[in-house]
Design a protein that fits this description.
The protein is mainly alpha-helical and 182 residues long. The chain has seven helices and five strands.
């Protein structure tokens, strides 16, 4: 079996996301909220374009796009915006017998960089909802939308490029081999 050829520039973008991921690890809830709001607004601003792309790729009607793609994504974004402070707050935990007399807490930290591979059946919802979670957690991301939905993948790449720099969130399009290489 032939080894998959990685997409052009993937290593440079992966490396460029390193310092951003470290900086975002210390980001505030306010910074994370701003990123999510910018993404949500950019997606909703292109609603008519999503309708056309979904019709072209999947023969989905505008109602299907609203109910199956846009609404779940917006609900995910709204949930993250509403609960982000609580998710970021350290949690106190009980000391064990071995550590009696001490205090302990769980502090949540970003993992760094995330790879999100989108499916063909709900390409907007199932690619951008995980991105909302990654942004809420303070992570950068690389997205690989499905090659089976070229119009929606192209629109996704355009929207992401208007909201984020490649060292924050990047999109790589291509075949399943690209996903395997990433």
């Amino acid at each position: 079996m032939e080894e998959a050829v990685p997409p052009q520039g993937w290593l440079e973008i992966f490396e460029a996301q390193g310092p951003t991921a470290l900086a975002w690890r210390a980001s505030s809830a306010r910074d994370r909220r701003q990123r999510i709001v910018r993404l949500r607004e950019a997606v909703l601003d292109r609603r008519e374009d999503w309708y056309r792309a979904a019709q072209q790729d999947l023969r989905k009607s505008a109602g299907e796009v609203d109910l199956g793609e846009l609404l779940p994504f917006c609900l995910e974004a709204n949930q993250a915006l509403r609960h982000l402070d609580g998710w970021m707050r350290p949690r106190r935990v009980r000391a064990t017998w071995m550590t009696l007399g001490t205090q302990a807490e769980i502090q949540f930290q970003s993992r760094g960089r995330c790879l999100i591979i989108g499916p063909f059946n709900y390409p907007l919802n199932l690619t951008l909802s995980p991105l909302v979670c990654a942004l809420a957690a303070g992570n950068t991301a690389i997205l690989k939308p499905s090659e089976l939905t070229p119009a929606m993948s192209e629109l996704l790449a355009q929207v992401i490029a208007t909201v984020f720099a490649p060292d924050e969130v990047a999109v790589f399009q291509g075949s399943a081999e690209v996903a395997q290489a990433l």
